[in-house]
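Q: How do we represent a protein-ligand complex in a form that can be generated token by token?
A: Start from the inputs.
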Amino acid sequence: MSPTDLPTDAAPADAPAVQPLLTVRGLRKSFGSSLVLESIDLTVGRGQVLALIGPSGSGKTTILRCLNGLELADGGTITIGGEVSVDFGTAPVRKELTALRDRSAMVFQNYNLFPHKTVLENVIEGPIIVQGRPRAEATEQALTLLDRVGLAEKQGAYPFELSGGQQQRVGIVRALALRPQLLLFDEPTSSLDPELVGDVLRLIKELAVEGWTMVIVTHELEFAREVATEVAFVDGGTIVEHGDPKQLLRNPTQERTRQFLHRLL
Ligand code: ADP
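Then emit the structure tokens for the protein with adenosine-5'-diphosphate bound:
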């Protein structure tokens, strides 16, 4: 399955080449008295890949979790695909939040597979239980996707029987099986042994080439340079600067970005 199978909005004649799929304006989030996201603005075009980089604790994961409705933002708006728009300045209604959650799927740093379910059960759970799709159709799709990532023969295995790289590929398949418009990756390779990182990054790169729209939190700067269409540097709950990956990573305009990149080199 590719994202081109999904319904798209009709583009007006004078639309820019890339229609925004995701638009975030003024997103704010506090935990207790601690302001974690100040006023986040983001736009991601259809088929584009945004990489979020920045120091630990700067708010990157919280941005992803707000996009997916796993955290409720305190203010701002999130619009996905034109049809789903949630204004967190007013109390969002349940229907809006469900629509927001339906549009994206998250791939977690620690895979977050159900330990007591098989690989196949992990993949079909969301499509059947959350989306109400028929079991036979969900199973057929799951097997096609597992085959694609070389894990069809592991369909009956439990997560503990798989390597970290295999578990993360199941995590990615589980996200794809939800047929989201937007894929969210939270440091997808941070928990992997170095020799397993390449396989997972290659798979994500293939998805980018196929035209999936993605937001990826990553410390893999070389990967971000190669795969992302845009990089945003997050620090202290704000987007300090964003732009073309090659430009920003080689020649940032902000001193904070420069210092961060310098520490990583
Ligand atoms: P990053 O992904 O950039 O490492 P996070 O978004 O995980 O940053 O965290 C940003 C800040 O929010 C950190 O100070 C973190 O401790 C805090 N934080 C994140 N989640 C929670 C939570 N559920 N409760 C309280 N504080 C949180």
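Strands lie at 20-31, 34-45, 49-53, 75-80, 84-87, 104-107, 182-186, 213-217, 230-235, 238-243. The pocket of adenosine-5'-diphosphate is lined by residues 31, 36, 54, 56-62 (CB under 6 Å).
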